[in-house]
Amino acid sequence: MTTDLGAQDLTALLDSARQDYSELAGRGLKLDLTRGKPAPDQLDLSNELLTLPGEGVLKAADGTDTRNYGGLNGLPELRAIFAELLQVPVAQLLASGNSSLELMHDAFVQALLSPLPGAQSRWVDQGPIKFLAPVPGYDRHFSICERFGIEMIPVPMTETGPDMEVVTRLVAADASIKGIWAIPKYSNPTGVTYSDDTVRQLAEMPTAAPDFRIFWDNAYSVHHLTDERVEVADVLALATAAGHADRVFVFGSTSKITFAGAGVGFFGASEANVKWWLGNLSKRSIGPDKVNHLRHAAFLGSAEGVLAHMDKHRALIAPKFQATLRILSEQLDGTGLGTWTEPKGGYFITLEVPEGTASDIVARAAEIGVALTPAGAAHPLGQDPKDSIIRIAPTFPTLENLEAAVLALTTCVKLVGYEQRLKQQ
Amino acid sequence: MTTDLGAQDLTALLDSARQDYSELAGRGLKLDLTRGKPAPDQLDLSNELLTLPGEGVLKAADGTDTRNYGGLNGLPELRAIFAELLQVPVAQLLASGNSSLELMHDAFVQALLSPLPGAQSRWVDQGPIKFLAPVPGYDRHFSICERFGIEMIPVPMTETGPDMEVVTRLVAADASIKGIWAIPKYSNPTGVTYSDDTVRQLAEMPTAAPDFRIFWDNAYSVHHLTDERVEVADVLALATAAGHADRVFVFGSTSKITFAGAGVGFFGASEANVKWWLGNLSKRSIGPDKVNHLRHAAFLGSAEGVLAHMDKHRALIAPKFQATLRILSEQLDGTGLGTWTEPKGGYFITLEVPEGTASDIVARAAEIGVALTPAGAAHPLGQDPKDSIIRIAPTFPTLENLEAAVLALTTCVKLVGYEQRLKQQ
């Protein structure tokens, strides 16, 4: 550890970091580590979709003309594929438009404007309501709550999911807490997968609110980075067994399986929830884009087909994660300036830097042309109280650009870290 | 006119209708005139979409990779095509998912949950609000208001659009009236096109509500049935000129141009409205299905390309409208039992039958296997106070089935009409 270094040693390290930084500044970099976007070569894996469903192919397995109106539930054969992967009975899984974020947003809309199963009234009539926000978490989740004026209560993430001691205490005591965000597998941004015990507690815990919902965003259900296909417990089955069938809203999508902008989103839940959902949806839609469903069913084929396809993604992006981890290790091991996650799947690495330095690091990186997700983005309202979390999204850049960007990032970590340490002496 | 017939003549006519009816009942018909759906041969016109955008074709004109996230406004080249057809400046026209109904629903959602430009508060905080509903009108419009508990005030449709004397009086006096539904061209179900004077009044009229909106559902903008391509005045330009730029929400879609279930919806409005819309939308979506936009832009090519494509639709469906009108005329002329519209475009013919008979006619038709839109559907809450409006949707059945269905319908009109008249004697 270098934390015992004297002022002289620190000054030397800082000088070295400054030299590296000014050298990088001269290079005119333009690199981007901000968003969890697939790279073009990943999208290429699904280019068959550009000519599917194919000439004259227009009917679903049951004979439905996919081109016409109707079929609010989505194409049965596509739902069957993802029912298995998302752990929802096919009759209770709906296929919809091109985004699960839309479905999560609309779940709030419908709960705000129509009483949920189990609710005494719609949320908009219940006065201020709250949501639990495991942190670090996904900024777009938090933006939805913020947009509707829903107060978020941060809950620390642990190695096994949200701190369940905190969660169970809060939800038992406060009926205005209406739900919790959850990314159960390869979580954004920590990579954590919820333990069986965490899932069981979420499913079984008493809640003061009768209309409590777990927003189970299974965004990375098949997004493995290692040989281990990590599994997560079946929350819907556990909740149902515990008498809380209506507690769970399951979300998923093909955004990071096929095309990020032209995939299919899924919503799954209990029978009562699905009936409620369809009742509201029927006022909004005459049916989703079933041709795109047909296209996806033809391309992916089966749940096993999805997993085989995800192996191709892994072959492209695992080296990017490895390169990122290697550079972090080469540059920061032993400095005491950073620790980071080593995810087994998903799209992110979380870098934790000394308290009070994350914003400055992101700003310094921006000055030399390296865009990072704003520090704080992983926290409600963009406010990280420790200012110590930086999310790295390694997938989109080329390997070469990624390596340059991560190296620049570690240079900024050292620059800001040593500056801070010198000031503190 | 047969209204002067004596009891004996009436009885003979009724007997004849009864005989026809029981003969039809024996045929085991299974015919459907309910929904304004394109027929399979119409959908075939766009089958190129089943293999578009084509192998390796993935970039927008500006180089954007359509497969990835982003591009909340929709594909610029597709917006340019429809900007012309929907009379909205391209910068203010957004391309979205597969349905304009969704956009209309979501316009209510956003106005309920976020203050509109010009609004003092969001609609959900304004107490009971109302909407004007021109009748006969479109049932799915009315269902959206009903779903959100918004009271609808029926306004009679005339030959030139909604009765503007009623409209202007109501909106000037009542600040709780927040908007009006409008299908300006080839209206559902009457086929009426708003006169220039109607459009001008809608654009210019004083409204007590500062956040009044015209929901301008230009669903049939290019859906001509005759050589005359009927035009409607540019409501957005007129409203802007009158100092009411924010008054108009324009909606449109390709649902009845390409694939009914797999097309593209459009939203257009003033700059301030679009900014408000995108601000809310950015919390919901990372962008629409741009690959489908690319597919559509490649297929349709230009505004002129859309019009040429619509000529092909016309060639398929104009004969169905003509056959319907011919049978109505052959069977009902001179009976005094019905009058009907002769639309120059759109998807519907409205049949007006004697007061108090529409529901019974629809029920009798159902009994012999002919499905009609429920009587009353063209009115708020499904309640037609005169019980006299029947909507005929001629496009979906084959010509043969259509002719059988319309003949059966006219038999039911005679059966019920003569029964009523005999009772009234």
From TrEMBL, chains A, B:
GO terms for molecular function: DNA binding. InterPro entries: AspAT_Ic (IPR024551), PyrdxlP-dep_Trfase (IPR015424), PyrdxlP-dep_Trfase_major (IPR015421), PyrdxlP-dep_Trfase_small (IPR015422). The keyword DNA-binding applies. Keywords: DNA-binding. This is DNA-binding transcriptional MocR family regulator.
